[in-house]
Design brief:
Number of domains: 1
Strand content: 35-45%
CATH superfamily: Galactose-binding domain-like
CATH topology: Jelly Rolls
Distance between the termini: 10 Å
Largest sheet: 7 strands, antiparallel
Number of strands: 14
Oligomer: single chain
CATH class: Mainly Beta
Radius of gyration: 20 Å
């Protein structure tokens, strides 16, 4: 019986630490307040944010962002889905005969904290790649300014300059999790209730 209670505790802690979606942008109708820097032809079209890099530092900007979490939460991840068309090959990055997608040169920035490494890239169909960035190091509870690079910088993907490469962003999502102490307290409370039921 003790083992069952312990297993229940682990399950409760795990379930209480599941990330919650704080904000999600899907671009089905418009840019949802996003702007761009170093990008030509920036628009929302066909359910995507689209544009072409005018130099090696294309950026998507949400200012003001006004994304807030509660005192009992911490930031978890930013997840976005993107495909990139290489100007030189005319093929989507990662498709047959095209170079693999690389996050080298990408930056995600909240307020004054910039993250430029530790990205996870997963191929997610139709030449799209889903990028996950760990943002648990962000201490601010409110994101006033949000920058996201939709594709990598110079020489990062095709072995050529990023200038002239086009992108399509399917969605951008920001997630948070409960503070570890809050999650543990909630789980301990549930354990007490379980033990009382015995």
């Amino acid at each position: 019986m003790v083992n069952a209670v312990i297993l229940s505790a682990f399950a409760l802690v795990s379930s209480s630490c599941i990330a919650a979606v704080i904000v999600s942008y899907d671009f089905n109708s418009d840019t949802q307040g996003w702007a761009a820097s170093n990008v030509n032809g920036f628009a929302a079209s066909g359910g995507y944010l689209i544009g072409t890099a005018s130099n090696n530092d294309p950026q998507l900007l949400k200012t003001p962002a006004n994304i807030t979490i509660s005192a009992s939460q911490t930031w978890s991840t930013v997840v976005f889905r993107v495909r990139e068309l290489d100007d030189l090959s005319g093929k989507y990055i990662g498709s047959a005969g095209a170079p693999a997608f690389s996050p080298v040169g990408m930056v995600v920035q909240f307020n004054s904290t910039a993250i430029s490494s530790g990205f996870t890239v997963v191929s997610s169909g139709d030449d799209f790649h889903t990028i996950t960035c760990d943002i648990s190091s962000i201490v601010d509870k409110t994101i006033a300014n949000f920058r996201l690079d939709p594709i990598g910088g110079a020489l990062s993907n095709s072995g050529s300059e990023t200038t002239g490469n086009s992108f399509e962003v399917d969605f951008i999502q920001v997630n948070a999790v409960p503070e570890p102490g809050i999650a543990l307290l909630g789980s301990l409370g549930m354990l007490v209730l379980l033990r009382r039921r015995r």
